[in-house]
Design brief:
Bound molecules: pyridoxal-5'-phosphate
Cofactor: pyridoxal 5'-phosphate
GO molecular function, one term: pyridoxal phosphate binding
Number of strands: 13
Largest sheet: 8 strands, mixed
CATH topology of the largest domain: Aspartate Aminotransferase, domain 2
CATH class of the largest domain: Alpha Beta
Order of helices and strands: HHEHHEHEHEEHEHEHEHEHHHEHHEEEH
Helix content: 40-55%
Protein name: cysteine-S-conjugate beta-lyase
Family: Belongs to the class-II pyridoxal-phosphate-dependent aminotransferase family. MalY/PatB cystathionine beta-lyase subfamily.
Keywords: Lyase, Pyridoxal phosphate
CATH architecture of the largest domain: 3-Layer(aba) Sandwich
C-alpha cells in the first residue's frame, strides 16, 4: 500500500491552520466532514504550479487558457459529452459560483426550483438567499439504492416551476444515476420546459457503473442544460479554485456571464495551470486514489454491516461520501452526540435539506484513521446500551 495515502494526523493538522477541515474542531476531534482529501496532490500538479510562477502572472486572457479549455472539451468528450468547443465553456472561480449564477440567470425571485434532497447545501442556500422557492424531490432509500420518486416529482410542478437542479454523482448519497433515470429526468424537464443545472463535479470519482452527463443524452436536453464541472474533488485542489459552466446553448452561458459580470473576477493563472496539469498528467495519481477510495468504501460498508447494523446506510457508487442514518440510535441530536461523545466531526444532515439525525462522513482519508473513526462510533453505540 502506498504510504502517501496514509498520512500522519499530526501533519494534517498543520501549525499554520491552513486546513479548514483539520482546524475547525479541537485537536482531539477526528474530522471527517468538509469534502477534501487527506492525501497530498499529484506531483505533476505541484510542479505545474511552481513552473507557472516562473512565468508572467499578469492578466490572462479573459476567456482563460486556450489549452486548458481544449483539455476540458476532451475530458467531457471522454464522458460522452460531445460536440463542444471552447466557446461552450465559461470558466468560473470555482463551482459554487456556477450554481448561484445558474439560479440567478435562469430564474426570477418567486420562481419555483426543483431539487433532489438530501443535497449539497449550497443548492439550497442559493435558492433561499435569492428568494427562489425550493421544491424538494426526496431520494428514497430502497433495497436497490437511493431512488427517484417520479410520481412525486411530477406532482411538484406548477406554472411557476422553471429549473431542475441535479447533482450527479450525487452529494451526499453517492448515487451515480443510470441512463434510464437520466432519460426519465430529461423527458420530465423537456415536457415541463424546465432549465436543468447539472453539477457533475464528482464525475471522475465513480466506483460502479459510469458517469453519464445528462446533456449527452440528446440535442434537445443539451440545449436546456448547464453542466458544471471543476478539478477540486477529483484532484484535491479546493483551495486553488477553478470551475466551469458548460452548455451547448451559448445563450445560457451568456446569461450566466451577465450575472457574474464584475463579480466573478478573472481566471486565476495558478488554478488554470493546476487544472491543465491534472487533466494532462495526473491520471496515474487518480487511478491510485480512486482504487484506495474504493477500498475505503468497501471497508466502511463491511464495518457498518457487521459491527453497526443499526446505522442506516446504502453504499455509495461514487464520491468519497457516506450518508449515515443515526436516527434510531441517536435521534435528532446525532451530530452533537457524535462530536461531544465520540469526538468525531461529521457533517450535520440538517444542512442537506432538513435531515436531522443523518450524518455525512468523508472517507477520503487514510484507512487507519477511518478505522479509528468507526471504532469511536462503535464505542459510542456500545455505551448507549
Ligand atoms: C456537488 C458539489 N458542487 C460544488 C462543490 C464545491 O465546489 P467548489 O469548491 O469548486 O466551489 C462541492 C464540494 O463539495 C460539491 O460537492
Amino acid at each position: 500500500m502506498a504510504m502517501w495515502l496514509e498520512p500522519d494526523p499530526s501533519q494534517l493538522r498543520d501549525p499554520h491552520g491552513y486546513s479548514l477541515k483539520w482546524h475547525f474542531y479541537p485537536p482531539d476531534v477526528l474530522p471527517l466532514w468538509v469534502a477534501d482529501m487527506d492525501f497530498p496532490i499529484a506531483e505533476p500538479i505541484a510542479e505545474a504550479v511552481r513552473e507557472r510562477l516562473g512565468q508572467p502572472v499578469g492578466y490572462p486572457p479573459a476567456s482563460g487558457d486556450r489549452a486548458l479549455l481544449e483539455r476540458i472539451v476532451e475530458h467531457q468528450a471522454g464522458h460522452g459529452l460531445l460536440g463542444l468547443n471552447p466557446e461552450n465553456l465559461l470558466l468560473t472561480s470555482s463551482v459554487v459560483p456556477g450554481i448561484y449564477a445558474s439560479v440567478l440567470a435562469l430564474t426570477s425571485p418567486g420562481d419555483e426550483v426543483i431539487t433532489q434532497v438530501p443535497v449539497y447545501p449550497p443548492f439550497l442556500n442559493a435558492l433561499e438567499e435569492h428568494h427562489r422557492l425550493a421544491r424538494f424531490s426526496p431520494l428514497e432509500p430502497t433495497p436497490q439504492g437511493w431512488a427517484i420518486d417520479f410520481d412525486h416529482l411530477e406532482r411538484l410542478v406548477t406554472p411557476r416551476t422553471r429549473l431542475l437542479l441535479l447533482c450527479n454523482p450525487q452529494n451526499p448519497t453517492g448515487r451515480v444515476f443510470r441512463r434510464e433515470e437520466l432519460e426519465a429526468l430529461a423527458e420530465f424537464a423537456l415536457r415541463h420546459r424546465l432549465w436543468v443545472m447539472s453539477d457533475e463535479l464528482w464525475a471522475d470519482l465513480v466506483f460502479e457503473g459510469r458517469h453519464i452527463p445528462i446533456a449527452s443524452l440528446d440535442r434537445e436536453i443539451a440545449m436546456r442544460t448547464v453542466t458544471l464541472s471543476g478539478p477540486c474533488k477529483t484532484y484535491n485542489t479546493a483551495g486553488l479554485g477553478g470551475g466551469v459552466a458548460i452548455s451547448h446553448n451559448r445563450q445560457l452561458l451568456s446569461a450566466l456571464a451577465r450575472v457574474l459580470k464584475g463579480l466573478g473576477g478573472h481566471p486565476n493563472v495558478l488554478a488554470m495551470a493546476a487544472w491543465r496539469a491534472a487533466l494532462e498528467r495526473a491520471q496515474g495519481w487518480l487511478e491510485e486514489v480512486r482504487s484506495y477510495l474504493r477500498g475505503n468504501r468497501d471497508y466502511l460498508t463491511a464495518f457498518l454491516h457487521s459491527r453497526l447494523p443499526q446505522v442506516g446506510y446504502l453504499p455509495p457508487e461514487g464520491t468519497y461520501l457516506a450518508w449515515l442514518d443515526f436516527r434510531a440510535l441517536l435521534g435528532e441530536g446525532a451530530h452533537a452526540a457524535m462530536l461531544e461523545r465520540a469526538r468525531l466531526g461529521l457533517s450535520d444532515g440538517r444542512a442537506f435539506g432538513g435531515y436531522a439525525g443523518w450524518l455525512r462522513l468523508n472517507f477520503a482519508t487514510g484507512r487507519p484513521l477511518l478505522k479509528e473513526a468507526l471504532e469511536r462510533m462503535e464505542r459510542l453505540v456500545a455505551a448507549l446500551r
